[in-house]
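Quick log. Single chain, no ligands specified.
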Amino acid sequence: MTERSELLAGYRPGPLDEAVAEDGTVRPGYTAIVEALTPGGIDGLRVTAKDLDRRRMAEGISFIAEIDGVLTEQPFPLDPIPRVIGLDDWTAIRAGLAQRARALTAFLDDVYGSMRIVQEGVIPASVVRECPGFLPAAADLAPGGRPRATVVGFDLLHAPHGEWVVLEDNLRVPSGLAYAVANRRTAAASLPALHPWPGLRSPETVGADLLHALRQAAAPRCPRDVPQVAVLSDGPRNSAWYEHRLLAELMGVPVVTPADLSFDGTGVTATVDGAAMPVDVLYRRLGDDELIAGDPVDAAVNERLVAACRAGTVSVANVPGNGVGDDKAVYAFVHPMIRFYLGEEPLIGDVGTWVLAHPGQYEGVRDRLAELVVKPVDGSGGSGVMIGPDLTEPEVTAMLEQVAAAPHRFIAQEVIRFSAHPTLTAEGLRPRHVDLRVFALAGRDGSVVIPDVALSRVALESEGLLVNSSQGGGSKDTWLID
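-> predicted structure:
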């Protein structure tokens, strides 16, 4: 397409726009998509957006966020313009993330074992031992050599020079797999002009991929040739309750809560629809503290579940204690991990990071913090992130005081003005920043599978950089094209 579509009236692409060139022409991967959507115009897209909202509310595609101190169920917005990831990009992403996942799982095994990486001076002992996510009580919860992180999530940015970089690693309870499937299902129903589409890969295979990986995580004393898997949830109070149910549906397994579990010397049994069912692998969607420490209601159950893990009669995936692997300070050492454990050069980049617990690094950027992104080392979901250039003068002062009081709790990173994508707003289509969450599934034999599914999250505010749903972000159907 050589001319601007009427859909793009008033659209001003920047240098990092994935769909529209700076001269206003539509990039080749999006030409046919824009042509297919042009007849309906912006009004047609608005009708589609309302239909998407209606379908998603009816199906319960939502999350729970704290708004003004109150837990509130919110619809997970889906923008009608899909995002295209071409085959060359996807091939490079898969190779880089498979390598990164292998190194991170090796790191988790090591720090809960011999700590060779610390002993050989690759990473300071203080970075590991002072990490809030390092839980020595979880050291023996993965007997039999299975990976401590079966499901790994990576947040990627398309950076200024066209390369992909990893912004964050997620090794505890990464969410998004089911939302990516739900995005495709609702988009296909509301956008018939785009479905089916030549070469578009389906995300529906992720259920079989996930089930296979979880079965490989079975404990050494599993008595069944085909391990029985269940999703372990705390129920509707969990912010990702919709995802728990859909993932169970995709795998053909039940959702259970700690209260549904019973224990004897030979294993764990769950009560499902009134009947007893032996369980070998629990896909954990609870936080680490809820399992290791527990609350007064579930403490006894948690204690027995942890004992069963240690005895090798049941496995929990992901294993508690993985927060040491996705700690923001540890992130700065992932490239050295790849070289140390794999003897390879990193295949995918990451973001320049200063670990403020290190006095020299803190002093080096103390006067530049207002130009950087400052993050708590144990934060998730965008919580506590402070983007210096976006802060007011009083907010900068408060940030500097907060960091000065406890520099070991923070890291600092360069601000990356990552790629943008046409997104429906009240003014029409406008560029909004997008990131990409991709998942890795680690097997017992050291293999890593990157399933053909990805979740694009979009910052709905103009110039906004926080894409997390809890921070007001939305999502896009992500097209992986052959």
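The chain has three domains: 6-81, 83-344+417-480, 355-413.
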